């Protein structure tokens, strides 16, 4: 009874924290004026590194906490069983800390890549049409990855929480951090090109974030998750190809003038 209550509390906290993160993201987008919205569609959103990373982590909490909940709850269930046998109990939030560290490092890499791409595009005078077509190519790359064996391997690790726990268990606090890191790396391997696809769609495009979140959740939790991943890959390939032909199909496309880099 106590263990069940604890799991409900953890699940409620995960949902509440994710909901708060979504509220912040929606509030930020709805509070933007026209100029701020244009900056939102730039790769770095017109932000310096600290603010970009803060927003990135809010995004990861909003998008990944719901999808990681089954693994976190399974970790807690095993830890509660160990506690019942008189062994050392490690909080699930230690596991979560290791998990989120992976996404924090990913945020640093994302900012470095985005800032570098903005500098390069500004240097060569990249046109809006060319920029949109590069975005289309990224969408196609994401679609191709959804159909790849590496995606299948990482997704299999994310779809079976108890299997991961049994094969990757580490005792103690540092063991929990390592498990969180390992699971985070599998999640990263499963989803990183979906996050890359957010850049041409608008990194702060809440609708696009919601679609990606639902897709990741469906891939990980539904019985037909593997099929959903394949279908989404085909959809991304088709959409990316359409953007190559019709650049204006990309929501970040600017119809007049050169692409603005901040």
What does this structure look like?
The protein is elongated and about 65 Å long. The protein has helices at residues 2-30, 34-40, 49-84, 92-124, 128-146, 149-159, 161-168, 172-201, 206-221, 225-245. α5 (128-146) packs antiparallel against α10 (225-245) and α8 (172-201) crosses α9 (206-221). It has 10 helices and no strands. Helices cover 80% and strands 0% of the residues. The relative contact order is 0.15. The protein has 262 residues and is an all-alpha fold. It has one domain. Residues 257-262 have low confidence and may be disordered.
Query: In terms of per-residue confidence, which ranges show pLDDT below 50 for 5 or more consecutive residues?
Result: 257-262
Specify the structural class: mainly alpha
> Care to count the β-strands?
0
Helix proportion: over 70%
Radius of gyration, in angstroms, nearest whole number? 20 Å
Number of domains: 1
Strand content: under 5%
- Shape call: elongated
Average pLDDT, rounded to a whole number, is: 88
Instruction: Report the order of strands and helices.
Output: HHHHHHHHHH
Task: Kindly list the characteristics that best describe this protein.
262 residues; mainly alpha; 10 helices
List the helices and strands and how they pair.
Elements: H1 2-30, H2 34-40, H3 49-84, H4 92-124, H5 128-146, H6 149-159, H7 161-168, H8 172-201, H9 206-221, H10 225-245
């Amino acid at each position: 009874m106590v263990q069940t209550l604890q799991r409900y509390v953890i699940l409620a906290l995960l949902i509440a924290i994710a909901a708060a993160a979504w509220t912040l993201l929606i509030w930020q987008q709805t509070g933007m004026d026209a100029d701020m919205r244009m900056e939102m569609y730039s790769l770095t959103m017109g932000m310096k590194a600290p603010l970009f990373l803060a927003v990135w982590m809010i995004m990861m909490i909003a998008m990944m906490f719901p999808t990681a909940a089954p693994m976190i709850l399974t970790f807690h269930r095993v830890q509660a069983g160990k506690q019942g046998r008189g062994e050392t109990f490690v909080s699930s939030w230690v596991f979560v800390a290791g998990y989120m560290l992976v996404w924090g490092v990913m945020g640093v890499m994302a900012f470095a890549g985005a800032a570098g791409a903005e500098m390069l595009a500004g240097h060569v005078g990249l046109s809006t049409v060319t920029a949109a077509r590069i975005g289309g190519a990224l969408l196609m790359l994401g679609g191709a990855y959804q159909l790849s064996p590496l995606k299948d391997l990482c997704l299999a690790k994310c779809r079976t929480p108890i299997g991961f726990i049994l094969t990757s268990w580490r005792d103690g606090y540092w063991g929990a951090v390592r498990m969180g890191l390992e699971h985070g790396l599998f999640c990263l391997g499963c989803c990183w090109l979906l996050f890359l696809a957010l850049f041409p769609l608008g990194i702060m495009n809440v609708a696009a974030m919601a679609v990606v979140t639902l897709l990741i959740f469906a891939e990980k939790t539904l019985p037909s998750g593997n099929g959903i991943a394949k279908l989404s890959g085909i959809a991304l390939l088709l959409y990316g190809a359409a953007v190559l032909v019709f650049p204006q199909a990309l929501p970040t496309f600017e119809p007049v003038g050169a692409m603005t880099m901040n």
